[in-house]
Specification:
Helices cover 80% and strands 0% of the residues. It is built from eight helices and no strands.
Amino acid sequence: MASPIMSLFGQSPIKPLQQHMHTVLECVDLLNPFFQAVIKEDWEAVEEAYNTIAEFEGKADDQKQDIRLHLPKSLFMPINRSDLIQLLSKQNKVCNTAKDIAGLILGRKQVIPKKIASDMAAYVKSAIAVATEAKVVIDELDELIGSGFGGREIDRINKCITKLEKAENKNDKRQITLRAKLHAIEADMPPIDAMFIYKTIEAIGNLADRAQSAGEQIQVIIAR
């Protein structure tokens, strides 16, 4: 029996790749309620949110495996098979990172200091925004192919990638601000707590970087 994800293939593997990215974004979006619960120190809600994140991460892993197993050896498409596999891998790393972040916080029930709580929440939202913009780019891939890599569609994708880059730059600036505020209060914190929060900040930045890399993989495909 054909798996549900493979019923999307038809003549092209692009739709399953896009569906995979939708699952990735659903996973990443859950970091917002996760961190809201962390800030409130509602550890029951934190654990519930983590379990849901893990569920979506598992679903994305299953979709990735399904796509890799059924991706034709030879594609009658103007896209290199290895480029599609690279895109799939980059997409999957985004939700893997989301799960790692949630696990890092839940594992030691890490409290976020009140003085940086609002900045942390804004930082998480800006990282999610990068993943959202990456999905927008990837959603254009089938239109790009349908247009025969037409100039108008390439221009549209380039505009989407510009928005993706701006979202990632905004996330970088929020990271700098958040690190500075944490540095200002770290002397009053247990050193291990400060270390774990710095590690969390770095991981959230990595999530945004990986989302940007997934979206910009479309430029690699266009360049070939």
